[in-house]
From TrEMBL:
<dbReference type="GO" id="GO:0000977">
    <property type="term" value="F:RNA polymerase II transcription regulatory region sequence-specific DNA binding"/>
</dbReference>
<dbReference type="GO" id="GO:0030182">
    <property type="term" value="P:neuron differentiation"/>
</dbReference>
<dbReference type="GO" id="GO:0046872">
    <property type="term" value="F:metal ion binding"/>
</dbReference>
<keyword id="KW-0238">DNA-binding</keyword>
<dbReference type="InterPro" id="IPR050453">
    <property type="entry name" value="LIM_Homeobox_TF"/>
</dbReference>
<protein>
    <recommendedName>
        <fullName>LIM zinc-binding domain-containing protein</fullName>
    </recommendedName>
</protein>
<keyword id="KW-0440">LIM domain</keyword>
<dbReference type="InterPro" id="IPR001781">
    <property type="entry name" value="Znf_LIM"/>
</dbReference>
<keyword id="KW-0677">Repeat</keyword>
<keyword id="KW-0539">Nucleus</keyword>
<dbReference type="Pfam" id="PF00412">
    <property type="entry name" value="LIM"/>
</dbReference>
<feature type="domain" description="LIM zinc-binding">
    <location>
        <begin position="6"/>
        <end position="67"/>
    </location>
</feature>
<keyword id="KW-0862">Zinc</keyword>
<dbReference type="GO" id="GO:0005634">
    <property type="term" value="C:nucleus"/>
</dbReference>
<dbReference type="GO" id="GO:0000981">
    <property type="term" value="F:DNA-binding transcription factor activity, RNA polymerase II-specific"/>
</dbReference>
<keyword id="KW-0479">Metal-binding</keyword>
<keyword id="KW-0371">Homeobox</keyword>
Length: 79
């Protein structure tokens, strides 16, 4: 059975196993797994967040989707 290369969710190019990362059921080149806001590479980060096929670092995910204080607009972390 022919093994098909999976294509990268970010750039659409096929990925060889060596550079394949699997996050949230999607495939990514290790080089393409970057936060869509601050462009920090996330392939060596302990956590990253996937939303609508966009990757976010923890900080930007919290900033973008976290609950913000109406008064000071800083993110409120759930504890
Ligand atoms: Zn890619
Ligand atoms: Zn970021």
């Amino acid at each position: 059975m022919k093994k098909e290369l999976r294509s990268c969710t970010a750039c659409g190019e096929p990925i060889s196993d060596k550079f394949l990362l699997d996050v949230g059921g999607c495939s990514w080149h290790s080089a393409c797994l970057r936060c869509c806001i601050c462009h920090t590479p996330l392939d060596h980060q302990p956590s990253c967040f996937l939303r609508e096929r966009q990757i976010y670092c923890k900080t930007d995910y919290a900033k973008t989707f976290g609950t913000k204080c109406v008064r000071c607009s800083r993110t409120i972390s759930a504890t």
